[in-house]
Amino acid sequence: MHVGRQSFKMPSFIYNFLVEKMETKTSPGHTFTRVPITENLSVLDRIVLVLMILGAINWGFVGLANFDFVAILFGTMSPVSRLVYGLIGLAGIYGIPVVLRLRRRP
């Protein structure tokens, strides 16, 4: 995505979470495959989890410091901020079964 003349680069930890692949590592005499906890999650599931985490962090700042990132970025209850709040709320509802699936994973 390009914003003006600057290009937007997603932070690597978010990119790795969204498109994480299994890794096979070898050491002398041993081969093992690291299977990430997010192995069976779709890209939508991963995006929902990221939105849930960002929403939780935002609400933590609201509760502890009366600082609302969404309101700072998009204005207090502007149409865009209401859209962001709505998307995070929908992500929370959609994310309940996602989190339960992760919890049941052997």
List its traits:
4 helices, 106 residues, two-stranded antiparallel sheet, 59% helix
Q: Could you characterize the architecture of this molecule?
A:
With 106 residues, this protein is an alpha+beta fold. It has one domain (2-104). 59% of the residues lie in helices and 13% in strands. The chain has helices spanning 12-19, 43-65, 69-74, 79-104; strands at residues 2-3, 6-7, 23-27, 30-34. A two-stranded antiparallel sheet has the order 1-2. A two-stranded antiparallel sheet has the order 3-4. The chain is elongated, with a radius of gyration of 18 Å. Residues 1-5 have low confidence and may be disordered.
Radius of gyration: 18 Å
The major beta sheet can be summarized as: 2 strands, antiparallel
Mean of pLDDT: 79
Report how far apart the termini are.
37 Å
Structural domain tally? 1
Shape descriptor reads elongated
Write down how many β-strands occur, each being a DSSP E stretch of 2 or more residues: 4
Order of helices and strands: EEHEEHHH
Percentage of β-strand residues = 5-15%
Helix amount, in percent?
A: 55-70%
Q: Largest sheet, order of strands side by side? A: 1-2
Structural class, from secondary structure content?
Answer: alpha+beta
Low-pLDDT runs: 1-5
By DSSP (H or I, 4+ residues per run), the number of helices equals 4
